Amino acid sequence: MASEFDLIARYFTRPAPAGLLGVGDDCALFPVPVGEQVATSTDLLLEGRHFFPDVDPRALGHKALAVNLSDLAAMGARPIGCVLGLALPRLDEPWLAAFAAGFHALADAHGCPLIGGDTTRSAHDLAISVTVFGAVPPGQALRRAGAKAGDDIWVSGELGAADVAYRLLDGQYPANPALLAATRNALEWPEPQVALGLALRGVANAAIDLSDGLLQDLGHILAASRLGATLEYARLPVAAAVAALDDAPRRRAVLGGGDVYQLCFTAPAAQRQAVLAAASAAGAQVTRVGQTQADPGLRVLDDQGQPLADLPAGFDHFPAA
Ligand code: ADP
Ligand code: MG
């Protein structure tokens, strides 16, 4: 049977780019770009809690890194490298090979090589921990606290599909193979908006990545910036398959659905052209969905300008000031 060291050599050891010391020593080494700060973030994914036990391992490898790259994107940081902690309940080589392939493919696409980690046997469930490192010039990171009253609020990509796929797979919605086929990629293969985050440096005032739902995550920007906001429901970019659903599931998916890994950011109205230019340079779609204001609280208006009642759960948790 393969030892821990064989597994690491086979699946997690890649030639490190010049100037980096990758897998194989007690620490990895990477140069810190002169004059820049290191941005770092870590995410822990647990079987049964963050992913279904039978998920495609290639997709899981992709997503484990994607959710971390998304945090770098939200700060406007450029990826440098990452480390991977794995607690494995069993030694399943085909599973590991597929997981590693999904992980390395995304790492290569973003120039974020795997340079170290830890591998251990777990008694029960699978646990995956990824830490990313990135670089950003001092003062240029996109912070949650940077929004100003009167800023436009923007979101990238489309909303709602991941939530619908999750609820279908979880059995909360009746089986619907066509709807699952139309939404599943959004849940399992999120594309972190790294290029957009970089392009928004010096343009956006604040940013966050959408992991827990638009209202919740925008609420973090508002709380950190001590602002309120108004969103226009009709402006929100809704995934086509979700737009066709009934009101309640659509609203829950669009306003409350997590696992989006798109960016929500604010920028002064005077920067509208600059935002659109940044998005186009990054190959991203962005939509202006509302405005921040000094008044506390988060309102969502329908197309008659009336506040929506029955906002998805989580809304009550928003600090009003
Ligand atoms: P140590 O006992 O010094 O912590 P290990 O035997 O755990 O070292 O790991 C050996 C090498 O393999 C180290 O360079 C470590 O970073 C790397 N490594 C271990 N597990 C992983 C993994 N899952 N992904 C990437 N690198 C790993
Ligand atoms: Mg170790």
From TrEMBL:
Signal peptide: none
Residue numbers binding ATP: 117-118, 144, 211
GO terms assigned for molecular function: thiamine-phosphate kinase activity
Reaction(s) the record says it catalyses: thiamine phosphate + ATP = thiamine diphosphate + ADP
Known pathway: Cofactor biosynthesis; thiamine diphosphate biosynthesis; thiamine diphosphate from thiamine phosphate: step 1/1
Annotated positions binding Mg(2+) 3: 26, 71, 209
InterPro entries: PurM-like_C_dom (IPR010918), PurM-like_C_sf (IPR036676), PurM-like_N (IPR016188), PurM-like_N_sf (IPR036921), ThiL-like (IPR006283)
Record field: transmembrane: none
The keyword Lipid metabolism appears for this protein: no
Binding residue positions for Mg(2+) 1: 42-43, 118
CDD domains assigned to the protein according to its UniProt record, in alphabetical order: ThiL
Residues annotated as binding Mg(2+) 2: 43, 71
NCBIfam families: thiL
UniProt function note: Catalyzes the ATP-dependent phosphorylation of thiamine-monophosphate (TMP) to form thiamine-pyrophosphate (TPP), the active form of vitamin B1.
Protein name as annotated: Thiamine-monophosphate kinase
